[in-house]
Write a structure and sequence with these properties.
globular, 11 helices, six-stranded parallel sheet, 14 strands, Rossmann fold, 25% strand
Amino acid sequence: MTLGDRYGAHRVLEPLGALPQAARRLDATTPPLDNEIGLAVSTLHITATSFERLWREAAHRQDRMAETILRIVAERGKFQDPVTGSGGVLLGTVDFVGPALRDKPDLAPGERLVSMVSLALTPLRLEQVGQVHPATGQVEVKGQAILFESGLWARLPSDLPELLALLALDVAGAPAYAAKNVRAGQRVLVVGGGKAGLLVLHEAKKRVGVTGQVILVEMDAARCQAALSLALADVVIAADATHALDVAPKVAQATNGALADLSFNCASLPGTEMATILSTRDEGEIFFFGMATDFSRAALGAEGAGKPVRMVIGNGYTPGHAELALQVLRENPPLRSLLNSLLPAGEH
């Protein structure tokens, strides 16, 4: 058998010795080895942070966006935003299962999968880029990808539209962390009301109970209205989270000065760290899930403000996260309908 490193180090071309996520360039042309999975890729779901940046850079033009994606993948052997370092996930059909993958005996060619590891570490070749869907950050493509032995994946459920499941699975880590950490009676703050924020709001609202409080900070009026109409938040603060000195007093007012016990930053724009930190009580906890989060801004900003908060980088993986994200869609039909409405016509 021809085996590669279980974490994919054998695919790193530059710099040698790096792991795939940190590498600048991967080998995506060598056929899958005996401990790898080969996929025919049909859709990329790009992280909100990267998609919004690249979409602005492309002047909201489909052709320029397609050219940018093709260029990045050709240069890097993977899709990784050269500025933010983030990627996303993909949807594809299994066309090869390495015989050495004995722990995946029930996986067979022809199955439809979503990769649950970042595109920023996934070897990828693209033949073409088709339609770009700004509402979801999804891009239709034709190409091939490889999952390493350590790579996580999720089967598509039979009871949900493929692209809806893809949308939820891209942000599965955030609601899973909310499910594991939110407690009854807590004051929970969510910064950013996009896809990840909505799923976190659902889990937080479900778990704080009648004695708790859920607060959303979001500057987009439509997202604010959606959170209110779906009863996902007790308080919605329509504000720009890059303006910490505007946001923190409003959170203080909403909580009668107590501030949030637990905060989830799901913002896709940079510069929202301090609004989250100043809105969280001393000894409170913050989970940063936005890919625009800057470690230095958060760590040095909290120090400078004298805020003894515990800050956690949200790991995109926690056991059971895929099924939990899909379950949110099943148990909240209004939220599912809202997210469904973002999909291209005919995909609902």
